[in-house]
Amino acid sequence: MKRILAVGVGVLGCSMLLMACSDNNSSSKGSSSATGAAPTSVSVASSGKTSVKVEGNDLQGLDLNSVTCVKQGGTINIASGAVGGQQGLGVVMKDGQPPTVQSLGMVVDGNALAVSDNMGMKTGSADVKVDGSTYTITGEAAGADMKNPMAGMISKKFEISVTCK
C-alpha cells in the first residue's frame, strides 16, 4: 500500500516538475542554446475555454484562468495553479495522432490521484480526443484515500478540456 501511495505522489510530483521546467524559457522562442543545440519551437496557450470535471462535477478550488498548455519537443504539458493550495492538475502527453497521456496528476479533495504507465506498473487510464486546438482527456485517475489510507485505492472519473495552440 505504501509503495502504491509513493508511486502516486511521485508521479504527481514529477508531472508538476516537468511542466514547471518545460515553460522555463518560453520567452526565448526559437533560440539556440550555447551548446549548439537546434532551435526548439515552443507554443504556450493560456486562454480559451478550459474545464476540469471529476465525477461529473467541476473541480472546485482549481483556478481555471491559470491553466496553461505548452507544446515543445513532441510533448504537450498542461498545468494549473490552485486556489489556496488545495487542488491542482498536471498532464504530460506525447504529441501524436492521437496524443497519448504519459502521466497525469491531480489533487482532488486532498488526495493525489494519478494516471501513469511506468515500467509495467499501470495506474488509472486516459484517452485523448482532439478537435482543432481543443484537447479533451477522459479517464479514471487512482490514488490513496488520505482520509482513510488503510481502505485501499480510490479512483475518480475525470474529463479535462483545454485549448492548446
TrEMBL record:
Keyword Cell membrane: yes
One cellular component term from this protein's GO annotations in UniProt: membrane
Keywords associated with the record: Cell membrane, Lipoprotein, Membrane, Palmitate, Signal
Bias-annotated ranges (Low complexity): 27-47
Chain spans, region Disordered: 27-49
Pfam families, alphabetized: Myco_19_kDa
Signal peptide (residue range): 1-20
Name of the protein described by the UniProt record: 19 kDa lipoprotein antigen LpqH-like protein
Organism: Mycolicibacterium aichiense
Upper taxonomic lineage: Bacteria, Bacillati, Actinomycetota, Actinomycetes, Mycobacteriales
